[in-house]
Design a protein that fits this description.
The chain is an all-alpha fold and about 270 residues long. It has one domain. It has ten helices and no strands. Helix 2 packs antiparallel against helix 3.
């Protein structure tokens, strides 16, 4: 893997990230994800710390299933674009519908694992609330909730890797062959550094855009928003999420375009 190879893949993925049709395709999906996140955030208002934890992480795992299916569709579209094959979005969607639907089920195991972690976390919260010795036991067992939250964060990173490495592998198959995950893991063992660098490059535009938008939202909250509680705050979050989703759309398209480029490059290298 040379710098010139990465530059070529990056430039082609970036150029094809500003297609109007793909933007109109991805933007509503990101709006759906935004609504889901805002809904869970609204539920977290005045909730207990235990419930807040689930309402922070759960929408991340739920949106992964949606984005994974979207990634498969974008991967197939990108394949036709790179090969200069004439296509219609409707035809690709019809041919890919079964695979897209089956792909969304890959997000179920991480959700189940997280729910298990959440339940275990709740046990430690209950132990801490026992009168008399609860506080003492809670101090001693602080490491356990720390490890549970750490495991939840690691699970989010695994989901991100799933989007990058698995979606292009499924996109290039006529059917959803989910044994590809094992093949990808074996391939990653041979070139861990290369896979890591490509993943960082793919998520860098997303993190950059999210950072700028988050800073803008924080400054807007300090300088303009005058409401602190209730339905008004939720409505503000929703309307702010609209430009969030719009600005993130090209970055998300680039992420999946570059995942296709990376998968093809690394597969040819292994061969």
């Amino acid at each position: 893997m040379t710098l010139k190879d990465i530059e070529r893949c990056f430039n082609r993925a970036l150029i094809l990230s500003f297609s109007k049709k793909k933007i109109f395709l991805v933007f509503p999906v990101l709006i759906l994800c935004s609504i889901l996140i805002v809904f869970f955030r609204a539920l977290a208002i005045n909730a207990s710390s235990w419930l807040v934890m689930s309402l922070i992480f759960l929408p991340i795992f739920l949106t992964t299933g949606v984005l994974l299916s979207l990634g498969v569709l974008l991967g197939r579209i990108y394949y036709h674009e790179v090969k200069s094959i004439k296509f219609h979005y409707r035809d690709i969607l019809k041919k890919s519908f079964d695979v897209i639907l089956a792909t969304s089920y890959l997000s179920i195991p991480p959700i189940l694992i997280y729910l298990l972690l959440w339940v275990v976390f709740g046990i430690f919260v209950l132990l801490k609330e026992i009168p008399g010795f609860g506080q003492f036991v809670g101090v001693i067992l602080t490491f356990a909730p720390f490890l549970i939250i750490l495991a939840s964060i690691v699970l989010c990173l695994i989901n991100l890797s799933l989007l990058f490495f698995v979606s292009p592998a499924i996109a290039l198959k006529e059917k959803g062959d989910f044994t590809l995950a094992k093949d990808i893991l074996e391939s990653m063992k041979k070139n861990i550094f290369g896979y890591f660098i490509l993943l960082v490059i793919a998520v860098l535009p997303i993190f950059l855009v999210v950072g700028i938008l988050s800073l803008s939202a924080i400054l807007t909250n300090f300088s303009y928003s005058s409401y602190a509680h209730g339905l008004t705050v939720v409505m503000e979050w929703f309307f702010i999420s609209l430009p969030f989703a719009l600005c993130l759309t090209p970055a998300v398209i680039f992420f999946f375009n570059f995942s296709m480029e990376s998968y093809n490059y690394l597969r040819k290298k292994d061969e």
